[in-house]
């Protein structure tokens, strides 16, 4: 079926497909198989938002062997390592992935345990593909002597309306299917692309090394025949072939995951380039209600204000910020980006914002610190990185300089939330509590953090409607009593 032949509606697409496979009990079966295997599923997350579908697991922001030993000894099948590579240059991204692969292999050998890597990235196709999966495949082959049979490409993220059909990846907005290559995200200064058809996208991103026709495809029609049909396709995989996976729902995804586990039991080896929904399914993570306000406010800090830090420049974030600034219970503190790009202006601008933020938080007022919305960009990728890192560095310095413990912290945008977590709050390991709304995860900071035991809400730049950021703050305030 050619989805591009006039299908603009998700409902219309569904109507042309066989019904979903009866997935009742599949998630529990997936969990049982994983528990019996005793292996670790290790998600290398290229920004902090990837835990947006899971709960009650750990996320590491460092990957030294001591911390990895703790993770391997934990009872959970799954853990995340935050690499933040989407906010770094390609050379650094390669080094980090290689270093993690080697450290993990060393600890796994020491512990006598097996593991599987998932390279979690953006549901809008931004990030270092094929670099990251190439590095992981190369290191895996070098260390084990076995090559991977394939890498599964699964960018579907249902919580944010990202689905794949007919090999084309879509945003869903009000039931309308929008091919992602027509979105603002495809015009990204660093990770832009022209193709929403995933086989063509692979050819584009590999610069022709892999032709579109070489990709294996798992179609929706095959998935809806059940796990055995998926397994049959996966058993054909060899030589680390890209495998395009079409999915519209968790019912589809659970069928894929069970078929995948069956193929692995037949000796097949895979790595993964996916968005967040796959991890929940493949690890057998159960559904959980959104977190209540009691778990969004730091115990003992109820009298203080909370802080929202906004760095993302995508249009969705700007609209969400505009809505938040209409809320009477929040104080807006804008950072003039043109000033912080000047060394003298940087110090003056930050001193002003830091002083005001501390005053307002101590008085019990919520604040939103945000970079001015005029995007300052140049044609050179390296210089664009420097600009974004300078702005992010300013936001980090503000968090580092907070003297009042906030009752909650929200960071908006992938690079921003990563830098606030690792540099501003000095988090080494955090616990993922769950989500405050669809696709918006909440960490609990560890004992080593600048502020320990604080709910840290990681708000992706490309998630939610125009009012979702405002509604998150309202939920905390209006239900606080």
Automatic annotation (TrEMBL):
* Residue intervals of the Four-carbon acid sugar kinase N-terminal domain: 41-281
Q: Where is the Four-carbon acid sugar kinase nucleotide binding domain?
A: 307-469
| One Pfam family of this chain | SBD_N
Output the Gene3D superfamilies linked to this UniProt entry.
Four-carbon acid sugar kinase, nucleotide binding domain (3.40.980.20), Putative sugar-binding, N-terminal domain (3.40.50.10840)
InterPro entries the record matches: 4-carb_acid_sugar_kinase_N, 4-carb_acid_sugar_kinase_N_sf, NBD_C, NBD_C_sf
Q: Which domain of life is it from?
A: Bacteria
Any keyword S-adenosyl-L-methionine?
Answer: no
Q: Which residues form a coiled coil?
A: none
Keywords for this entry? ATP-binding, Carbohydrate metabolism, Kinase, Nucleotide-binding, Transferase
Q: What protein family is recorded?
A: Belongs to the four-carbon acid sugar kinase family.
What name appears for this protein in its UniProt entry? Hydroxyacid dehydrogenase
């Amino acid at each position: 079926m050619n989805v591009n032949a006039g299908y603009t509606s998700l409902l219309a697409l569904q109507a042309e497909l066989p019904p979903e496979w009866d997935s009742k009990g599949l998630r529990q079966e997936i969990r049982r198989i994983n528990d019996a295997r005793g292996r670790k599923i290790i998600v290398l997350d290229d920004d902090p938002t990837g835990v947006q579908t899971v709960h009650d697991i750990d996320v590491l922001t460092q990957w030294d062997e001591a911390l990895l030993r703790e993770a391997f000894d934990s009872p959970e099948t799954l853990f995340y390592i935050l690499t933040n590579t989407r906010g770094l240059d390609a050379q650094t991204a390669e080094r980090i992935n290689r270093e993690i692969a080697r450290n993990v292999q060393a600890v796994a050998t020491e512990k006598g345990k097996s593991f599987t890597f998932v390279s979690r990235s953006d549901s809008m196709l931004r990030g270092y593909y094929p670099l990251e999966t190439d590095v992981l495949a190369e290191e895996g082959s070098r260390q084990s002597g076995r090559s991977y049979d394939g890498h599964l490409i699964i960018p579907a993220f249902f919580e944010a309306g990202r689905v794949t059909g007919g090999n084309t990846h879509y945003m869903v907005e009000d039931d309308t299917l929008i091919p992602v290559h027509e979105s603002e995200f495809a015009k990204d200064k660093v990770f832009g692309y022209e193709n929403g058809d995933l086989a063509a996208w692979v050819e584009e991103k590999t610069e022709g090394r892999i032709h579109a026709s070489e990709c294996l495809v798992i179609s929706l029609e095959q998935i809806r025949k059940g796990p055995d049909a998926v397994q049959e396709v996966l058993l054909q995989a060899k030589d680390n072939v890209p495998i395009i996976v079409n999915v519209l729902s968790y019912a589809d995804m659970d069928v894929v995951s069970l078929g995948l586990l069956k193929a692995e039991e037949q000796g097949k080896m895979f790595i993964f380039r996916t968005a967040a929904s796959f991890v929940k399914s493949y690890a057998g993570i159960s559904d959980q209600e959104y977190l209540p306000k009691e778990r969004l406010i730091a115990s003992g800090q109820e009298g203080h204000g909370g802080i929202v830090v906004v760095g993302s420049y995508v249009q969705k974030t700007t609209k969400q910020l505009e809505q938040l600034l209409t809320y009477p219970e929040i104080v807006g503190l804008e950072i003039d980006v043109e000033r912080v790009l000047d060394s003298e202006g940087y110090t003056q601008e930050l001193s002003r914002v830091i002083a005001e933020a501390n005053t307002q938080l101590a008085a019990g007022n919520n604040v939103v610190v945000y970079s001015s919305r005029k995007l300052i960009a140049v044609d050179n990728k390296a210089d664009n990185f420097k600009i974004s890192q300078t702005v992010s560095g300013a936001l980090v310095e503000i968090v580092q300089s907070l003297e009042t413990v906030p009752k909650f912290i929200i960071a908006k945008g992938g690079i921003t939330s990563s830098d606030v977590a690792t540099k501003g709050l000095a988090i080494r390991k955090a616990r993922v509590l769950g989500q405050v709304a669809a696709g918006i995860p909440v960490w609990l900071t560890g004992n080593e953090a600048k502020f320990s035991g604080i709910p840290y809400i990681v708000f992706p730049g490309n998630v939610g409607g125009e009012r979702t950021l405002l509604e998150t703050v309202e939920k905390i305030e209006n239900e606080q009593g």
